[in-house]
C-alpha cells in the first residue's frame, strides 16, 4: 500500500474499496481479518477501524460471533446508490463556481465528442466515465462531498462489474455527456444539472436491467 499522511484506517479503507471495485471480493464473502491484515501489511487494530467505517457505509456487515463479511448485492441497493450519487453530483455541480464551469465546459464537450465509438468495452467505459465526471466536478469546493461521491462510486463499480464484466461491449454514454457539456457551454447550469440526472438515470436503468435479467 502507498503511504500518505492520512490516518492508516483511511488508507486501509480505500485499499479495500479499490479491491472490491476490481472484483477481488465476492458478495457476502466472509472477511478473515488475520489474512487481510497480513496481505495489507498492517495490524488488526487499524484494519478493524477501517472495517467499522465501511460497515457504517453499508459496504460490509457484521454478525455477533461471526465477524465481518461483504454485504450481499441487490438491484434495490444499486438503485438506492445511484439515486444518492446522482443527487450528490448534482449538488457538487451546483456548488461549483460558474466561472470555473465556463472555463472547463469546452474541454468537457471535446472529450465527450472524442469518445466517438458507438460501442466500447465496459472497462473502457468505466475509466472514461470516471475521468469525465471527475473533470466535470473538479471545481467543487466541498472536499467532504467529493470524498463521499468517490466512496459510493467504488461500491457501485462492484455492481457494474458483476452485472456486465470488464470486457463485454456496451453502448457508451458519450452523447449524454455531450448534452451536459453543451448546456454548460451556454451557461445553462440548471439544464446541465437536469442532463446530469438524466445521465445517471439512464446508466441505472441499463445496469438494473442486467441485474434482474
Task: Give keywords.
213 residues, mainly alpha, two-stranded antiparallel ribbon, 9 helices
How are the SSEs placed, and which strands pair?
Layout (H helix, E strand, L loop, with lengths): L7 H14 L11 H8 L3 H13 L3 E4 L3 E4 L4 H21 L2 H17 L4 E3 H15 L6 H22 L4 E3 L2 H12 L3 H24 L1
Antiparallel strand pairs: 1-2, 3-4
Helix pairs in contact: 1-3, 1-7, 4-7, 4-9, 5-8, 7-9, 8-9
Task: Give structural notes.
This protein has nine helices and four strands, in the order αααββααβααβαα. The strands form two sheets. Strands 1-2 form a two-stranded antiparallel sheet. The mean pLDDT is 87. It is mostly helical. A hairpin with a 3-residue loop joins strand 1 and strand 2. Helix 1 packs parallel to helix 7.
Amino acid at each position: 500500500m502507498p503511504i500518505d499522511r492520512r490516518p492508516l484506517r483511511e488508507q486501509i479503507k480505500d485499499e479495500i474499496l479499490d479491491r472490491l471495485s476490481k472484483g477481488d471480493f465476492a458478495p457476502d464473502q466472509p472477511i478473515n481479518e488475520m489474512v487481510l491484515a497480513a496481505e495489507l501489511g498492517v495490524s488488526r487494530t487499524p484494519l478493524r477501524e477501517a472495517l467499522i467505517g465501511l460497515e457504517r457505509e453499508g459496504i460490509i456487515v457484521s454478525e455477533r460471533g461471526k465477524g465481518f463479511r461483504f454485504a450481499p448485492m441487490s438491484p434495490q441497493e444499486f438503485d438506492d446508490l445511484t439515486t444518492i450519487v446522482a443527487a450528490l453530483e448534482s449538488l457538487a455541480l451546483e456548488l461549483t463556481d460558474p466561472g470555473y464551469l465556463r472555463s472547463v465546459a469546452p474541454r468537457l464537450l471535446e472529450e465527450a465528442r472524442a469518445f466517438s465509438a458507438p460501442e466500447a468495452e465496459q472497462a473502457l467505459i468505466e475509466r472514461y466515465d470516471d475521468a469525465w465526471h471527475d473533470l466535470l466536478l473538479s471545481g467543487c469546493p466541498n472536499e467532504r462531498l467529493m470524498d463521499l461521491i468517490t466512496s459510493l462510486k467504488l461500491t457501485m463499480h462492484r455492481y457494474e462489474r458483476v452485472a456486465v464484466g470488464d470486457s463485454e461491449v456496451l453502448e457508451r454514454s458519450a452523447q449524454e455527456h455531450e448534452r451536459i457539456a453543451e448546456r454548460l457551454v451556454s451557461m445553462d447550469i440548471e439544464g446541465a444539472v437536469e442532463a446530469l440526472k438524466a445521465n445517471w438515470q439512464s446508466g441505472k436503468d441499463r445496469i438494473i436491467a442486467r441485474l434482474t435479467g
